[in-house]
Amino acid sequence: MIKNKKKNESRSGRRRPVVSVALLALGLAFTGGVYAALTASTASAEVDLSSPQVIDQGSKLFAANCATCHGQQAQGTANGPSLIGVGAAAVDFQVGTGRMPMQANSAQAPVKPVQFTDEQVKALAAYVASLAAGPAIPTESQLTDGNVANGGELFRINCAMCHNVAGAGGALTEGKYAPELKNVSAVHIYEAMLTGPQNMPVFNDLNLTPADKKDIIAYLEYNRANPSPGGLELSSLGPVSEGLFIWIIGLGVIVGFTIWITAKSN
User: Fold this and answer.
1) For the residues 205-209, what does the mean pLDDT come to?
2) Distance between CA atoms of residues 165 and 219, nearest Å
3) Are the CB atoms for 82 and 70 separated by under 8 Å?
4) Residue 112: which residues within 8 A CB-CB, separation 6 or more?
5) pLDDT, tens digit, 9 for 90 and up, residues 212-262
6) In CATH, which superfamily holds the domain spanning 52-131?
7) Which residues does residue 177 pair with via DSSP β-bridges, in sequence order?
8) Residue boundaries of the structural domains of the chain
């Protein structure tokens, strides 16, 4: 009777629990993939920074997240500078890299997870840009097809003293630092040169032309795509770290080996 009952259940089309779980997991994976694709396409969509709706959205976001430090009209307060005239590029850099809003007052704003979507970042940039003219967010044509050789020369002359010749970053005074550039997007590198965030000087189009900026980006992207062929590069921090490695590790190994030989012979 029991065997016949099981046969009847299997013939009636009932699924085993394992099959049900597998189908549920497959359905969730498919739904998640479709949602991720739609979200990515929405996030990458172009945002019209001159649109009144976008500017209004940015105004509301600014009032809720930025006005405490920068003032209701972005005029600045004792806790934050004026943003009038900084342009969309400065906002896109600071907010798009997670530096703003700051979690706490410190020597400089560190990179942290971005707190807004790409559309919200662009809306904030649109609102600040509507207050007064300033540097705009660079276009795709300003970021590609640069000259690597010329970019390397320009980088060594203008940037390497702080960021290191390989873009590995370096320490400055009073707890400040020049961040590494290996994982920074091209648009944020261009915006940093254009706006001079924190301790960085402003490289306007009279200091470095748009073509020069494009060449520097090409040099940094070349370094990122072509790591050092000479083996362990010790984060590309230069002769100080390499010399320290030799003195501590290299000589330490030699001294330890000498002690081991002496002890064994005795």
Assistant:
1) 93
2) 11
3) yes
4) 98, 99, 103
5) 999 999 999 998 888 765 666 666 566 666 677 777 888 888 888 888 888
6) Cytochrome c-like domain (1.10.760.10)
7) 171
8) 52-131, 140-227
Q: Are 178 and 248 in contact (CB under 8 A)?
A: no
For the segment 66-81, what is each residue's pLDDT rounded down to a tens digit?
999 999 999 999 999 9
One of 2.30.30.100, 3.40.1190.20, 2.60.40.420, 1.10.760.10 is the CATH number of 140-227, namely 1.10.760.10
User: pTM for this one?
Assistant: 0.71
- In single-letter form, the type of residue at position 22 comes to A
Residue entry with tokens 């929405």? 42
Report residue 173 as tokens.
């005074």
Say whether 140-227 and 52-131 share the same fold.
yes
d(CA 196, CA 201): 5
Q: Which of 140, 138, 142, 133 is nearest to 87 (CA)?
A: 133
Burial 125-139 (b: 16+ CB within 10 A, else e): bbbbbbbeebbbbbe
